[in-house]
Amino acid sequence: MKKMWSGRFSGESSELLEAFNASIMFDKNLYKQDIAGSTAHAKMLAKQGILTQDECEKIVGGLAEILAQIERGEFEFRLEDEDIHMSVEKRLSQLIGKEIGGKLHTARSRNDQVALDFRLFCQEAFLQIRGEILNLIATLNEIAKAHKNTLMPGFTHLQHAQPVSLAFHLLAYAFMFVRDAKRLKSSYERNNLSPLGSAALAGTPHNIDREFVARELGFGGVTQNAMDSVSDRDFALELLFDISVIFTHTSRLCEELILWSSQEFGFVSISDSFSTGSSIMPQKKNPDVCELIRGKTGRIYGNLIALLTTLKALPLAYNKDMQEDKESVFDSVSTALNSLIILNQMLKEAKFNEQNLANACKKGHLSATDLADFLVREKGVAFRTAHFITGKCVARAEELGKDLSDLSHDEISDIDENITPEAMKFLSLEASREARKSQGGTSTQSVNEQIRLLDEWLGRNA
Ligand code: ARG
């Protein structure tokens, strides 16, 4: 079987080389982008008088037929065709004849062709993943609306710290995902440029119109240096990085759901449809989805590091090393989409246990800071002294086996003259939460504002 590039070769390729060199088994994923790019290229060549109108129509028609064949599952991808670019071009010549089919590659190289196909793929991925992130934000915001008054302990060092609402805690994630969505959009906008027409590395002597191709493909413009355009993959790195940050966030959310669904916490129950059982312990219900998303963070980070390392210190311009750019990106994109879709569905069905969340607030004297703040604000006590007095009250609560918020005035009034009956209302957990009215705080008022901002942002970005 003759290779398309076999002109200067007299010997046959080793079969080992063929298998080792080929990328068709994974870059066939790019068939849509490859055909779209070739179609735009052919139209441009005709507009510039490089192809006749008739030649262009045959090429465009042939490409459409190939697309249909691939989508019907009738196209056989063969190792010997090396990659998607040569597979499509070879089939085109079989369909419309070598004379015309052989003209498609005028003013083009596989180097700018693959840079184009891969960039188109990444551009679509930025938007698809962003769409799933928006769905997740909407779900978190809806859960927040239902749990504005669900009290729970806020943690630092995984120790009970101050009372917050469940809404407030979940909104923390919603705002992380808003930044992720913005990051994806800005990556999309920065990279929305067509590299086609860069040819092998130095541009082409043919009178091409790169802007035309860019417009045909939905790009905002063209790249500015041919050598850069065929040799960098920073758009793919950005995609891998953006996905990595998303997984940093989802891994934290999933970790909390795993903890919260344990017997120790009992804050949430994951629905049966998203839990798995044990093959030996009949009573078990495991949060496998969360564990898997947490676990997949490893390969997501690995994919980013892999491509960074592949590109590091590569001399300009194209090197075959760059064929290694694709599998990690395909893997990260499908992993991200699948994970976000299932996480969203699982959250929609999760049931938060309000009673257990409230009971947890009764452990750890969560309103201690509020008592100290009262003494400073209303009684003019120095903060250090207020801290000490409050510490004494906590010790008393421990002695009595109670939570600070459950003490009566009689039980602590002897500790300091400033512990007045009025002080007692600052020990209430609800009051503690409601007191945090600062912008971004956990009071109902502040949380309502956060929910409103998210609704408004989602409305503008839908
Ligand atoms: N399959 C190749 C890749 O993915 C296409 C570009 C090949 N270019 C070349 N000069 N051999 O990178």
TrEMBL record:
Compartments, record wording: Cytoplasm
Domain Fumarate lyase N-terminal: 7-302
EC number assigned by the record: 4.3.2.1
Keywords, ordered alphabetically: Amino-acid biosynthesis, Arginine biosynthesis, Cytoplasm, Lyase
Argininosuccinate lyase C-terminal domain segment(s): 366-432
PROSITE patterns for the chain: FUMARATE_LYASES
Catalytic activity: 2-(N(omega)-L-arginino)succinate = fumarate + L-arginine
Assigned protein family: Belongs to the lyase 1 family. Argininosuccinate lyase subfamily.
Protein name: Argininosuccinate lyase
Organism, scientific name: Campylobacter gastrosuis
